[in-house]
Amino acid sequence: MSINDIFKQPIKVVNTGLASFQTNLETAGAESIQVNWRPPAEVSKESILLMEQFRERTDRANAEAMRIILSGKPVLIGMGKALDYIPGMRGDLILHSGSPVTWDRMCGPTRGAIMGALIYEGLAGSIEEAEVLAASGKISFAPCHEHASVGPMAGIISASMPVFIIQNETYGNLAYCTLNEGLGKVLRYGAFSPEVIEKLKWMEQVMYPILKTAIEKLGKIDLRNIISQALHMGDEVHNRNRAATSLFYRIITPAIVETCENKPDAIKVLNFINGNDHFFLNLSMPASKACLDAARDIPWSSIAVVMARNGTDFGVQLAGTGDQWFTGKSPVPDALFFPGYTKEDANPDIGDSAITETLGLGGFAIAAAPAIAQFVGGTAQDAVRYTLDMYQITAAENPLFQIPSLNFRGAPAGIDIRKVIEKNITPFIDTGVAHKNPGVGQVGAGVLSAPIEPFRKAYEGLAKTMKAG
Amino acid sequence: MSINDIFKQPIKVVNTGLASFQTNLETAGAESIQVNWRPPAEVSKESILLMEQFRERTDRANAEAMRIILSGKPVLIGMGKALDYIPGMRGDLILHSGSPVTWDRMCGPTRGAIMGALIYEGLAGSIEEAEVLAASGKISFAPCHEHASVGPMAGIISASMPVFIIQNETYGNLAYCTLNEGLGKVLRYGAFSPEVIEKLKWMEQVMYPILKTAIEKLGKIDLRNIISQALHMGDEVHNRNRAATSLFYRIITPAIVETCENKPDAIKVLNFINGNDHFFLNLSMPASKACLDAARDIPWSSIAVVMARNGTDFGVQLAGTGDQWFTGKSPVPDALFFPGYTKEDANPDIGDSAITETLGLGGFAIAAAPAIAQFVGGTAQDAVRYTLDMYQITAAENPLFQIPSLNFRGAPAGIDIRKVIEKNITPFIDTGVAHKNPGVGQVGAGVLSAPIEPFRKAYEGLAKTMKAG
Q1: Nearest neighbour of B246 by CB, restricted to A246, A254, A404
Q2: What is the pLDDT of residues A343-384, one digit of tens each?
Q3: For a Cys staple, A243 with which of A177, A235, B105, B446, CB 3.0–4.6 Å?
C-alpha cells in the first residue's frame, strides 16, 4: 500500500503525546485513542540499574508487604488521653501531621493549631504568649506518624486530648487519632479562637467519657467491616464519610443509650456525631495507619507505608527504608473554594489523611464516591479514570474494599514507588484546603496529584539500601 | 463500489434482531452494535389510531401529571392505628396488596398472612378457625391501594396495626403503611406461627408508642430528602434500603432517647431498626404512593400511577383512567433462592412495593444500587443497562433522585404506557420472593420484567376513554 493509499482510508490515531493532541483530532472528527504514557521521572542511572538488578527480590518483599497490609484487621478497642496511651507522649510535646518540621518552617495553619493547643493545655494564656512559648524551644514538636498516630490537616495532638485507640487485630500493633471536631472554626484547620478551645474542652470533658464508656460496653468495633460497607455506599472514607459515619453511629448509639445516665449529654453527643459526616475520618485514618504500620521494616520493599504532609513538605516513607522520610515541596491543591476565597488564600496541601490513599482508599477509591469528583467540577467518569490510573502504580487489589461501578473490583492498594517513577504517575489524593494564615480555618476542598520529588528521593533512597546490600 | 468490494472492507454490523445474532458476530470478531428494538406489543388497530389521534392531548396531560408527581414532597408526619386513620378501615376489613382478589383466587402467602392477621386481631383462635372465618364471607377484603395505603409482599393491614402516616406536603394527600417486621418468619411473606404474632404484638405495644412519640417530637421527617441521599449511597430504596434506614435512624434516634423513659425498651427499638436494613422500605413505599396519588384523575394521561401484585394478578392503574384496574397473570421472578429452595417453591410476584418502580425508584434506579444486580448474579454494567432501558418507557427524569454512575442523571420517572406498548419494553422490578404455600415465608430475592398483559389492557382502556371523549 502506498503512502497515498493510507490517507485515502479512515485514519485511526494512537496518541502517546500530550492529551491536547487528541482533543484537536477529536475536533477534526478523527477516531483516536489516548495512551496514558509519560516518560519515566528522572532518577539516577545507578538507581535504575540497582532497581532492575534486584527487581525480583523487591517483588518478593512487596508480595510479603501486601500480604501483611491486606490481612490487617483494624478494630476500635477504646479511648484514652494522649498522654496515657501514645508512646513517647509528654506534656511539653506537640505532635503534628506530616514529616518533621521546625517552628520557623511551619505553615500558618500548623502554627495556629499549635498555639491553640498550648492555650487548650493551659500552657499559654493568650495567642501572643502561645506564639512566644512555641518559638522558645521549651516545646518539642514531632510527627504524629513517629508516635503511632495520625491527625487530619494540622494534625495537632497535645497531652490532654482524648484519642481513639485502634488495634490491628491480626498483628497486634496500635494506632491513635483524636476526635473529629466537625466543621466551621476548628483547630485542625489552624483556627484557635475561644469557641474552638471551648469545643475541644467539651469534647474532652463531656463527649469523650460517654464515647469511651460506650466503646467499653461494646468491647470493640470492626472498622474494616464499616469501611468495606461504606465503599458500597458512596464513601471513599477520606473526603466523604457520610455512610461510614452513619454505620458507626448505628453501632455506637444503643451502647451510648445504655451506659450514659445523663440524657441531655447523651443527646448532645448523638447530635454532635449526626451533625458531622466527617466524624468517621478520624477512624478511617488510624485504621489505615494500623494496617500499613504492620508492614514497616521489610527490607527491599518499595511499597509506601506513609504519605503525609505538614503543610510545607510532602513526606513519604517506605516499607523497605525504615524511619527515613523522603520529602518534597507540598503543592497547593486544585480546589473548589468557599465564597470569598481563592487559590491565593490556600495553604499547600496538609495533613496525615493521605494515609487513606496509602492504603488504597480516598483518591484511590474515588470511583466509589463520584459525588466528590462532581463537587470539584468533574464527572463520574473522571472519578473512574482517577481510580483506573491508580491501578497502574499499585502492587495489588484489595478484595475487601471494592469499587461498585468497576463491578466490585478490589480497590488499587499498595503504592509501588518503582511504578510511580517508571510510569511518572503520582498518587491521586482527595483533600481539604486550609487558609494559609493561622486562625482562619477551612477555605475549600479539592483533589491533587502528589508531587514527584519525594518519590524520586524515595527511589534513590531504596536503591542506596540495595547497594549497601 | 461493487458487492465484492464491500466484503473486502471491515464490516460493521447493526443488529436489530435477536441479541444472540450479535453474540455470534462477536465470537467471529466482527464489529457490531445491538439495537434494542422489538416489534410493538399487540394492541387493537382502533386503539393505536385513537392514541395517535390524541397524541398531543395525551402529551399535555402527561406533562401535567409529571409536574405534579415530580413536585411531590412526601414527609412522615406521624403514626396511628389503621382503624383510626386509614379511610374506610373497619374491624372486619383486611387490606391486601395488589388489585382486588377474592379468597378463592388468593395465593398461599396472602391467605397465610390473612389467617395470621385474624389471629393477631383476636378474631380467630387457631389457623383452622382463621381459615374458616376468612372463607365465611364475614370478613371483607380490599386492596391497600384503594385505601390510600401500600403494603410489601402480602401487604396485609388489619384494624389494630400501627401505620406510618405520610403526607405529600405539596398537595396535602396522605398515604399509610405498616411497620417493616424485619427478616425471618414474617407475616408479609405469609408466615403466621406464634413467633410471628408475638413480634407483631411487640411492635404494636412497645415499638409503636415509642416511635410515635419520637416522630411527634420531631414534628416531621423529610422522606424525599432521605431517598435523594440514599440514591447517592448505593440504595434504590426497594430491595436495598441500608443507607436510607441508616439516615432515618440518625434522625429518629436522638428523639427516641429524649422522649422514651424506658431505657431497655428504647434500646430494643434501636436494635430492631439496626437489625433490619429494610426498615425504610415501609417508608419509601408510602412516600412513592403519596407522590403518585396526587396525579390521579388527569384525563387523557397515559402515566401509570400504580403497579401492584396480589400474588395472583399483576395490576396497573393510570392517571387517565380513574380507579380502573388493568390486570394480567403475575409472573414468577428470576431469583436467587435461599438454600433448599428452587423456582418450584416460588409464589408469583407479589406486593405493592412496585410502587417504588412506578415513581422511578427500585428497578428503575438499579444503576444506583449495583449490589442488587450482583446479588442475583449480574454485573454493575447490567444494572446500568436496566436503568438505561427504563428511560425508553418513561416520560421524564427526576432531578431530585439521581444516578451517580450515570453522572448524576435524574432517574427515569413516570411510566408512559404508550411507550411500553410501542417499544414492547415492560417495567423492570426488584422484588422479594415468597414461598407459594401459606406459613413458610421468604425463599429468595430477585428481579423481573413486568408482564405485558396489564399494559396492553391499560392501553386499550385509555383508548376507550378517548373514544368516549
Answers
A1: A246
A2: 999 999 999 999 999 999 999 999 999 999 888 888 999 999
A3: A235
Are residues A252 and A139 located together in one domain of the fold? yes
* B190 band by pLDDT with thresholds 50, 70 and 90: confident
Closest partner CB to A234 (pick from B234, B258, B406): B234
In a domain, B127, yes or no: yes
Supply φ then ψ for residue B125, to 5 degrees.
-95, -15
Work out how many CB contacts closer than 8 A connect A with B.
95
Task: Return the CATH number at A398.
Answer: 3.90.1700.10
Could you list the residue range(s) of the whole structural domain that residue B26 is in? 3-34
Whether residue A70 is predicted with pLDDT greater than 90 in this model: the reply is yes
Choice among A75-89, A181-195, A454-468, B202-216 with the minimum mean pLDDT: A181-195
Whether A407 and B271 lie within 8 Å, measured CB to CB: no
The cell numbers describing B442, all together, are 421468604
Residue A329, beta-bridge partner list: A313
Tell whether A305 and A252 lie within a shared domain: no
Minimum-distance CB partner of B379 among A234, A370, A407: A407
pTM: 0.92
Alpha carbons within 13 A on the beta-carbon side of A81: 11
Same domain, A138 and A9: no
Compute the nearest-CA separation of A227 from chain B (Å). 13
Is A334 in the same domain as A260?
no
CA A44 centroid distance within chain: 29
Residue numbers in B near A257 (CB within 8 A): 257, 263, 266-267, 270
Q: Are residues A134 and A264 in the same domain?
A: yes
Map grid coordinates 435523594 to a residue: B228
CA angle B107, B113, B115 (to 5 degrees): 100
Which member of B229, B258, B408 has the closest CB to residue A267? B258
The ipTM estimated for the assembled molecules is 0.90
Which residue on chain B is closest to A384 by alpha carbon?
Answer: B405
Whether residue A234 and residue B405 make contact (CB cut-off 8 A), yes or no, is no
- Residues B365-371 have a mean pLDDT of 96
Residue A140 contacts residue A150 (beta carbons within 8 Å): no
A151 in the same domain as A191? yes
